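agent> fetching stored inputs for the NAP docking request
agent> found them:
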Amino acid sequence: MNISFCCTDTKAQPWLEGLRAALPGATVEPWSEGAAPADYAVVWTPPQAFFDEQTRLKGVFNIGAGVDALMKLRLPAGVPVVRLDDAGMSVQMAEYVSHAVIRHFREFDGYDADVAQGQWSYRKPRMRTDYPIGVMGLGVLGERVSQTLAQFDFPVLGWSRSPKAIDGVQCFSGDDGFKEFLAATRILVCLLPLTPDTENIMRHDTLSRLLPGAYVINVARGRHLVDDDLLALLDNGHVAGAMLDVFRTEPLPAAHPFWAHPKITVTPHTSARTLREESIAQIAGKIRALQDGAALASIAGVVDLKQGY
Ligand code: NAP
Ligand code: GLV
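agent> prediction call returned; pasting tokens
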């Protein structure tokens, strides 16, 4: 069995060694143009040339949860694309979003500023019932995040394409549920995949429907958010602030207004990192299962290519 590794912005050697150790007997090589045909591919944002050349693949494994970069390419027909299914990401995402929510709700930035001035000051405690949190996307990451936030006794709402039932979370679905979901949300968390249906979903008219003094947490993809619309709503006060981990262009260009905006906290696409050991174990397990004839339906994380996630 041959495995081709084609991951941009990724240190290849530890992945190659890890995959070789997890799949003894397999040949695991980094891809370069003209390389021999492989049975399986392990990829992250590969070039089109990779798929144009690798015509005998039996499966493509993405070393991230989001497959939007793959969906832009011409993929080989009939070959399953499998994304990471959690692999240690959901707990990281729950940490990040809880941090963002609590930092805003408890006004820790304000306390930091006061302390920097040598001021021992108190702020009036806020009521968590005034801060309903709406999580867009109730998949592997969104479900864990919404359940974690419910543990802090915040009112939590969730929105997904298909109807869901999650303990402690008021669930909405589809276009019909979207306006009701937004109108009841003050802190908005985006954990949607980037697809034609979700691109620019956080724009002027949708963000304007949030409760006044809204707070926006984007941990999905930069293209979910219309940057200028967020800036306008921060200017007019409808949105009180934002914590953003993902951007339309990454790294965030030096001149982008988000860097220095006093109401925006920027992090460098780090909310849920790919954990190498967990990911290798997961991918190797799935390759073994496919080799042993497992049904595709039994493999978690197979992408629905029609839906784009
Ligand atoms: P997932 O399990 O596929 O969940 C996606 C959720 O979004 C599902 O609940 C799905 O609804 C919902 N959804 C999709 N299209 C929708 C639409 N048009 N309207 C309403 N809901 C819709 O994905 P995941 O593993 O949770 O990951 C989510 C995204 O997080 C990834 O695609 C990636 O872009 C991003 N991410 C970011 C980082 C980071 O470090 N910043 C790390 C990992 C992932 P159904 O349940 O009805 O299908
Ligand atoms: C990271 O953004 C991922 O999609 O895994």
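agent> quick read of the result: The chain has two domains: 2-87+274-298, 89-266.
agent> awaiting further instructions
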